[in-house]
Structures are given as C-alpha cells and as structure tokens.
Amino acid sequence: MDAACPEKQLSTTASIALSLWFSLSGLAAVAGNAMVLWLFYKSESLRIISNRFLASLSTADLFVGLVIEPIWIASYCLIQPPADSDMFFYTDMFWVHTTTATTFSLCCVSVDRFIAIRFPFRYQEIITKKRCYTVIILVWLFSLALPFSMMLVNNEGNIASAVLWLSLAFVTFITSLFVVTFCYMFMFKAARRQCRRMFPSQNRNGTMKNFKAMKMVSYILGVYIISWMPSLVLLVVHSYYTATNHLCNDIKVDKVVWPWIETNAFTSSEINPLIFYVRNSEFRQAFRRTVHWLPFVHGQNSANVNLSQKPKRSQMARKVGNPVSFASKETKL
Predict the structure, then answer these.
(1) What is the pLDDT of residues 175-189, one digit of tens each?
(2) Is 260 exposed, middle or buried (0-12, 13-18, 19+ CB in 10 A)?
(3) What predicted TM-score, i.e. pTM, was given to this entire model?
(4) pLDDT digits 0-9 by tens, 199-236
(5) What is the distance between the alpha carbons of residues 253 and 258, in angstroms, rounded to a whole number?
(6) Distance (Å, rounded) from C-alpha 219 to C-alpha 224?
(7) Which range among 14-18, 158-162, 190-194, 251-255 has the greatest average pLDDT?
(8) Angle between the 129-145 and 86-118 helix axes, to the nearest 10 degrees?
(9) Per-residue exposure over 6-45, b if at least 16 CB sit within 10 Å of its own CB, e if not
(10) How far apart are CA 242 and CA 240, in angstroms?
(11) Rg for the chain (alpha carbons), in Å?
C-alpha cells in the first residue's frame, strides 16, 4: 500500500448501522428460504421439475443469509483488517461463489420457462428429472470452482487483477443477463401467439399456467437486476482504479462504499421467498397446510374452506356423468 494513502475505515456509526442491516437481512433470508426449502421437501405438489430450479435458487439465497452476511459483518464492520488482508481475499471468494450460484440458478429457471412455453408438448421429454439434477449439480460445481481462479492472480493492484475482476463480472452478470434476456424475448412472443390462438380448454389452461409462472420468474429477475446492478457498476469502477493504480480511490471504494452497495444486493435473498408466496398459489396453499397451527393461518384456511365448499359441490353436481371433466382433472394432477 502506498504510504501516502491513509487507511480507510468505516465510522463507528456506519459499522453499527451496517451490522444491524446485515443481521436483519440475514435472519430474514435464512427464515424465508429455509421455509421455502422445507415446503419443497414436505409438499409433494411442489416437487415438480421446474420448482427444483427454484429450490436451487433458494439454496443460494439461504447461503447468503447463513454464511455470507455474517462474514461481511465480521470483515467489513467489526474487524476491518487492512485492505491487502487475506480475510478480504477469502470474503471475495465466498462472494463470487454465491453470486455465481444465484445468477446461474436464475438462468436455469429462465431456460426452463423458455422450454415450457416454446416447446409445450416436448417439455417432459426435454426436461427430465435426471437432466434437471445434472444441470443443478453442474451449476454448483462451477460456482464452487470459479472463485479459485482468483488464486491465479496476485491480489495487488495491477492490470491482471483488473482483467480478472472484469472477467468474473462478465461470467457472473453479463453472460447470465444475456441468456435471460434472450429467453424472455422469445417467451413473451410465444406467449402472446399462444394466447391469441384458439386452444382446447386444457391446452389454454396449461398456457395460462406457464404464463403465470413466467411472470413470477420475471419478478424475481427484476428484483435481482435492481439489487445487483449497482454492484456490477461498482465492480467496473474498482477494476478501473486497480488497472490505473489509483490505490487510494480503490481502497475507499472497497472498504467504505462497497459494503453499503452490498446491503442492496443481499436484499434480493429475502425478497424472493415473498415473491414465491405472493405469486404462487400452490406455494401459498402448501405454506398454510404446513403452518396451520398458527391462529391467523388456521382462520384463513377455515374461511377459504367455507367459501369454497358450495361452489365445489355445485360443480360436482353439474359434472356428474361428464367423462371430459374427470379427464381434465386427471390431466391436471
């Protein structure tokens, strides 16, 4: 470090504020994503192939709240070691791992929805359970291996380090956004064409179901872009300062500005479970069945049952003897 460049530290007030923010954010991420994974495990109706990619995303978000945010509290708020400390180096490795797992899980979810809408009649043939698990395992193996590329470059400020960070940004952010954007361009076009055509009721119901799932994923993607885009911009600024040897500015960005930007980025980890609950009716039903012992949830379930009993009975009375209705029920199951 340049002797003329004083060591930058967060103020006591900023450290306390960041520690509280990371703590609350981590608790919310752990609680929400642990509940999501528990519901996937307990509810058989949620264990469909497309939801397994969402479970992978929830696992990455759980890792953020359980591991990453406590590490950031220790390194950036409490200990605050020198800028060239190994503690920051390993913190960055964990950050790269989590970011890669999150972005590539989002890619898997988007590609899955693309195939469901672009090839609706071949979806089960293309996305099999074996292929689903293979892709998820490859995503996590790649996200675990990518951070070790940082060991190939010296941690001091130089052009090689800047190229490394720009390459990581390209792999984790730019490539993923390109894939997701490509998928959504064709998904919206295909969904609009399918909605304009006259399908039998069962195919139309399947199309609308895929469209609703696509909208839920688009909300998750939007939250991710809004929360992580400032980190991408700051990463480019960090690479510029590193390449041009503006070490004082680089240290200030890394130790003073970067923690505040990451509070925004980590927010997506606790928002995603809320999106699952609000936008997915099957998830809401599984949640209410699982925590039915809570007073307000029990009251909601009772009200829903009372309101829905009469329509269901009347529908059953009208559909008695109608084999088409029973066939559609069986197809949905």
Answers:
(1) 888 888 888 888 777
(2) middle
(3) 0.77
(4) 555 556 656 666 676 777 778 888 888 888 888 888 88
(5) 6
(6) 9
(7) 14-18
(8) 160
(9) eebebeeeebeebbebbeebbebbbebbbbbbebbeebee
(10) 5
(11) 24
